[in-house]
Amino acid sequence: MSNSVGLIGVGSMGAPMAACMTSAGFDVVLYDIDSRHAETVAARTGARVASSLTELGMMVPMAITMLPNSRAVSNALFGEEDGLAKGLAAGKLVIDMSSGDPNATIAMADRLADQGVRMIDAPVSGGVWRAESGGLMIMTGGDPEAAQEAAAVLCSMGEPRHVGILGAGQAMKALNNLVAAGGFLIGIEALLIGQKFGLNPGGMVDILNASSGMNSSTQRKFKQFVLSRNFDGGGFAIGLMAKDVGIATDLARSTDTPAPFSALCSQMWASAAKMLGPDADHTAIARMSETFAGTELSESTRNDDAIE
Questions:
Q1: Which CATH architecture has domain 171-293?
Q2: Domain 4-165, what architecture?
Q3: Which residues of 66-94 are buried (b: 16+ CB within 10 A; e: fewer)?
Q4: Which of 39, 188, 232, 298 has the most CB atoms at less than 10 Å from its CB?
Q5: Is residue 86 annotated as part of the catalytic site, yes or no?
């Protein structure tokens, strides 16, 4: 079918993306390493399930990867026993929506080009709740004609914006997450300083949100997930944030751009992934800053919750 599209990876982001595509009328074919989970998502969304990556490649003109990193994408594309590329004929299109390494993506695209297959990158920002609502920001990189070919399916999941050459989408995503990661950490440190001085952290957040210190973390994370002690900010893991910030600092090095604050930010997130575990929610990094400060953030100005 001409409106068929494959989706590899139906985790916390891939599953709602599949639902958005089927709701928009696309014939979606799923593949996940967890075949039972793929069947569950298919039953819920009206999608179909391929028995292998190679089969999926033969079934669709366009295949999306939504995987944790570029290594996983490469394994899915070029696996020796079962790889997507084995099923892709010349003219087909691969859309990597993973938050990957731009240089790795360029290398994969070169391999695909040898068999006449095209590739663009289209990572997303917005988290699970915007994936569920079809409101993702989608940053595309690569051939503009290929990006236009993918526009209809991407629009079913959010707002695609073409930002440049192949890999540019992933570079933009990594840099966006660098800004978000740095803003979160500096905000938590400000709350800790203020609480120790005697300010109410909840009140601080309200004032930050009415002042120049406002950012996405002050608006949507500090009260909701840190001061509440829920530490469940949409399921985006510390390890994934550390990976994205690491990609951003790698870009700084490869472009010979001095970025000392970014380097420190990357080290902080990498340390948090080791200290708290890579699967912990990214908002839990506040616990590491609290440990350094010897106190936990709360709505109260009292300091009797200090960490011994």
A1: Orthogonal Bundle (1.10)
A2: 3-Layer(aba) Sandwich (3.40)
A3: bbbbbebbbbbbeeeebbbbbbbeeebbb
A4: 188
A5: no
